[in-house]
Amino acid sequence: MSLELITAIGRWLLPVLAGLILVSCGGVLIRGNRKTGTIGYVVNAANGDSMALRQFETSIGRSKLCDIVLNYNTVSRFHAVIARRGGKWILFDTNSKTGTYVNKDRVVEKKLLENGDTLIFGNAMFKFYEELPEVITPNYSNAYAKPEQNEKQFMYDDRRSQGDIVIPQMVREAGCNLENCITGEVMEIDDMDEVLIGRSEESHIRINRQSVSKYHALVSRNAHGRWMIEDLDSVAGTLLNGVEVNEPMPLHDSDIIEVCGYTIKFNDPR
Amino acid sequence: MSGPRWIPTMLLITAFQLISFAQVIFVEDGINYFAATILAIYLLIEWGWSITSSFVLRKSSPAIEFVAFFLTGIGLAVVASKGTSSLFTQFLAVALGFALYIALLWMLANVDRVEKFHMPMEVIAIGLLAIGLIFASNKNGAYNWVQIGGFSFQPSEIVKIAFIFVGAATLEKIQTTKHITRYAIFAVICIGLLFLMRDLGTALIFFFTFVVLGFMRSGDVRTILFVILAAGMAAVLVVLIKRNYVMNRFATYRHIWDTPYGNGMQQTRVLTYSVSGGLLGMGIGKGKLRNVFAAVEDLIFGVVAEEWGLLIAFIVALAYIVIFVHSVRNAKGSRSAFYSIASVAAGSLLIFQAALNIFGVTDLLPMTGVTLPFVSRGGSSTISCWGLLAFIKAADNRTWAGRKS
């Protein structure tokens, strides 16, 4: 074969082959990564909203750059990261001011997560699941359900289930109300002057747990008609948005009242 | 392109390389057995990796390696056509680069392991540049070549890998101010040392990569604009201090036809000879640009355009775009922010370097003397390019398809 022929073949064939190589590789490469399916969930204890974890790293914080934005003063701008590494889930605390907790234990740098763990960022509480429980949306028709039924309904293996709270009214109107953060049960309080929270039978919101005092906290109107919360010298104390209630404190829309780990949301649509 | 689906593409690459090397192996005074041997070993490496990757390691999609094999093959053929003396060293660099690629892929497989290498990489990067600054000899105006025994290398090329390695971080690390500050200091030291070595082209590449890394880490355009503005002010200051040096470097830009036998010689030759090659080229080894200084290094794009044709030169340019787009597409859904950031940074670095080279030799940008990734002759550059490719490959989830994620 003469050298001219080799050159001629090369001149005509090489561009064709180069084009085919690029098209063949380019087609595969430009498609990029396959979309990751849902690999886990976090459920907001305040409203029952579930958020799918579709990335291998999910940032949580007050900053808008985070994947899950928690707009609470008690949450740092970049509070924590939930990451999947080598088939395991790990929660990293990214130097948050108020700390990150897994089932009451403060996370020092990082902590391995188990299905159903309770995660607390500032005063925001979440549940972590690898698989979403069957029932997760608030169910208003079960307003008078017994605590046991509520427990089953939410499939929490934690004994501190929010289902233990019994809120006896079920009217959802555009007035001030107190809302069970997990079940979504709502107690309209516009026509009331005070709401007693405690273990006693006469409590308006009854939390049937030993750690809760009989007369634990009181939500009441002051002289100006403003809703306030005060702790009734309870043993375990009461928290408002993560801050201990030592004196009567005013309530604002979306405030979270916490009694021995049970969270109640104060709603004031007006 | 998993399983045997990659075989047709690999056959196309093999055919391309056999035909291109045929013009080098069959010469007027007989057969170039050395070039034939190098080609045979190179084909063995390509097929060996594809088979191992696909069937043994169960890593799917060797497409990104194929693009690199394709570009590297062109570079080897051009070097072989220039003479067998430099073919061996170039091939050795390719082999070393590929070994580094495999080693980095292993290292990047585990994010926790990556974290452990963070600090050593910082030390290596600054150490290499410091060695370069102290011991490097002047070559074409820059003090970036270090001679050890019979070998010489450019520390700045190897530092490119460390720069991205240190710059990328996992999400939990990115969000802490301590790490951001530390990386900013590291970047300023690296770019400052490069400037002192008068390696302006590489300093520019590092700065561009730093901006990309900064954006990927913060996601904040305002921060990046602030960084660019600060760098612009620093550049003005530098120009004022080193006015003569900088002005000399850019004096030829847009004025190459004023001095076609002086400073504008390289670019004018690239433009005229590229056109004379036409769409299909003159044939490998039959061009005239190869006789110009740094033909197979800085001007290799012009050599490809003249001898291989404008069509292939265009496809070579497109190959960098494919690598870049792939690196960006990988970022979404990769296993960690580390991979996303490193992939985009490596892809950006490669395309920016390719653009500096291609637009530099065609006088669309000032000529900075940087190499064309994977294609140009140059050991350090070739090794560095393969190392950078590992970051892009690692970000592709399909690479780890058989792993527990």
Number of helices of chain A: 2
The gyration radius over C-alpha positions of chain B equals 21 Å
Assembly state: heterodimer
- Beta-strand segment tally of chain A: 23
Quick summary of this structure?
The complex is a heterodimer of chains A (270) and B (405). Chain A has 270 residues and is α+β, with helices and mostly antiparallel strands.
Write the layout of secondary structure elements.
The complex is a heterodimer of chains A (270) and B (405).
Chain A: H1 3-31, E1 40-44, E2 50-53, E3 57-61, E4 68-69, E5 80-85, E6 88-93, E7 100-102, E8 105-106, E9 110-113, E10 118-121, E11 124-129, H2 147-154, E12 165-166, E13 177-180, E14 186-188, E15 194-198, E16 205-207, E17 217-221, E18 227-231, E19 238-240, E20 243-244, E21 249-250, E22 255-259, E23 262-267
Chain B: H1 7-25, E1 26-27, E2 30-31, H2 33-56, H3 63-82, H4 84-108, H5 111-116, H6 118-135, E3 137-139, E4 142-148, E5 151-153, H7 155-167, H8 171-174, H9 177-196, H10 200-218, H11 221-241, H12 243-250, H13 265-277, H14 300-308, H15 310-331, H16 337-361, H17 379-395
Antiparallel strand pairs in B: 1-2, 3-4, 4-5
Describe the structure.
The complex is a heterodimer of chains A (270) and B (405). Chain A has helices spanning 3-31, 147-154, and strands at residues 40-44, 50-53, 57-61, 68-69, 80-85, 88-93, 100-102, 105-106, 110-113, 118-121, 124-129, 165-166, 177-180, 186-188, 194-198, 205-207, 217-221, 227-231, 238-240, 243-244, 249-250, 255-259, 262-267. Chain A is of the alpha+beta class and 270 residues long. Mean pLDDT of chain A is 77; it is low at 135-173. With 405 residues, chain B is mainly alpha-helical. Chain B has helices at residues 7-25, 33-56, 63-82, 84-108, 111-116, 118-135, 155-167, 171-174, 177-196, 200-218, 221-241, 243-250, 265-277, 300-308, 310-331, 337-361, 379-395, and strands at 26-27, 30-31, 137-139, 142-148, 151-153. In chain B, the strands form 2 sheets. A 3-stranded antiparallel sheet of chain B has the order 3-4-5. In chain B, strands 1-2 form a two-stranded antiparallel ribbon. Chain B is globular and about 65 Å long. The two termini of chain B are 21 Å apart. Classes of the chains: A alpha+beta (270), B mainly alpha (405). The interface between A and B is large, with 47 and 63 residues.
